[in-house]
């Protein structure tokens, strides 16, 4: 049994987004459960004070609400050079073929107006980098394949993404642990009541990824654990899903 890995409150802030029930798209199974559980883990295992967490679910996670949280609420809670920022997103993503831009899909997105109603990932990462935070870590239980968590197409004739975002494309101080490698689907599992990636991310943050038992979890340790367990679980469902990390493997993601 893993020794409980409970963190002390520290200078940290989290924006947590869970979009399960879309206005115009098929649902993202268990995304709300993913986000709620991550909120609890952010307090207990990441040491984020409860007052420093913005949780947006479904109708609260419409485009305006997400942008207000990222542009105004989050910077107001950042102390320059000392605050660790965490962003968690569980929901659908999509890539616009014309310019290879990635978008997070808010609850009210209209994919025919993706630039106007989606959340441009590149813009979000630049915004987070400019916040003055000590570090920014983004957890993405989403893919940009144009498919739901059950493998169904979000849009007719939408094809899987083959473009890979390299670590050198990230702004300074930003790391992303994402649910998939290029072209894959981020799956959910009815038995887990979670996205597969989120399930093992939560277990990893709770201490199971602390392989050397030194009471701290490096982002590389967490990524290796989540990738190994997610891949194994997906293979058991005759699927392929391989989480990947872009960013600083030596960053201390959690500690006691």
Share of helical residues: 25-40%
The parts where pLDDT drops under 50 for at least 5 residues are: 155-168
Q: Which architecture would the CATH scheme give at its second level?
A: 3-Layer(aba) Sandwich
CATH class: Alpha Beta
Radius of gyration over all CA atoms, rounded: 17 Å
* Number of individual domains: 1
Q: What amount of the residues lies in strands?
A: 15-25%
Shape: globular
Outline the biggest β-sheet. 6 strands, mixed
Whole-number average pLDDT? 88
Strand order of the largest sheet: 2-1-3-7-8-12
> From the helix content, strand content and strand pairing, which structural class follows?
alpha/beta
Descriptive notes:
- By secondary structure, the chain is α/β, with parallel strands linked by helices.
- It has a single domain, classed as 3-Layer(aba) Sandwich (Rossmann fold), CATH 3.40.50.
- It is 28% helix and 21% strand.
- The protein has helices at residues 31-44, 63-76, 114-117, 121-129, 196-208, 219-236; strands at 12-18, 53-57, 84-90, 93-96, 101-104, 119-120, 135-141, 174-178, 188-189, 194-195, 216-218, 244-246, 252-255.
- The strands form four sheets. Strands 2-1-3-7-8-12 form a six-stranded mixed beta sheet, sandwiched between helices.
- β1 (12-18), α1 (31-44) and β2 (53-57) form a beta-alpha-beta unit.
- α1 (31-44) runs parallel beside α5 and α5 crosses α6.
- The longest helix has 18 residues, at 219-236.
- It is globular.
- The relative contact order is 0.16.
């Amino acid at each position: 049994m893993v020794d409980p890995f409970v963190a002390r409150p520290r200078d940290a802030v989290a924006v947590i987004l869970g979009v399960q029930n879309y206005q115009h798209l098929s649902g993202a199974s268990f995304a709300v459960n993913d986000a709620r559980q991550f909120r609890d883990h952010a307090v207990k295992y990441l040491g984020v004070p409860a007052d420093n967490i913005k949780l947006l679910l479904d109708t609260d996670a419409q485009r305006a609400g997400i942008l207000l949280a990222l542009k105004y609420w989050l910077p107001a809670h950042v102390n320059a050079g000392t605050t660790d920022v965490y962003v968690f997103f569980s929901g659908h993503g999509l890539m616009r073929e014309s310019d290879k831009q990635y978008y997070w899909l808010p609850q009210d997105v209209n994919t025919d107006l993706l630039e106007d109603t989606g959340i441009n990932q590149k813009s979000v990462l630049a915004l987070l980098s400019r916040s003055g935070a000590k570090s920014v870590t983004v957890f993405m239980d989403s893919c940009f394949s144009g498919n739901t968590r059950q493998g169904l197409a979000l849009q007719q004739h939408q094809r899987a993404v083959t473009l890979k975002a390299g670590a050198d494309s990230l702004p300074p101080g930003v790391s992303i642990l994402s649910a998939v490698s290029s072209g894959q689907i981020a799956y959910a599992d009815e038995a887990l009541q979670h996205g597969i990636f989120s399930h093992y991310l939560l277990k990893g943050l709770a201490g199971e990824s602390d392989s050397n038992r030194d009471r701290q979890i490096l982002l590389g340790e967490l990524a290796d654990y989540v990738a190994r367990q997610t891949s194994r679980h997906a293979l058991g469902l005759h699927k392929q899903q391989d989480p990947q990390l872009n960013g600083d493997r030596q960053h201390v993601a959690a500690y006691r």
